[in-house]
Amino acid sequence: MKTTVLAAAEAKPCPWCGEQPGMWRGVGAYRIIGCDNANCGVAPKASGYTKDRVLGVWNKRAVEDGRTEKP
Ligand SMILES: [Zn+2]
Asked: What's the whole-number average pLDDT of the chain?
């Protein structure tokens, strides 16, 4: 599957490793955004219909920026 690396202006970096996430196309408008770093211990992913919605999920952080503790 083709991965598109998302720009920093568009998507926040992975909260665990700091890499920019990649985006995969699913069926129809379905999109998956996730950390594609093989060395990332968590490799979080978000998915949903339409790119905007998934970006909203990916960019939403339960812990505010600057307070995220890395493992
Ligand atoms: Zn990561």
From this structure: 88
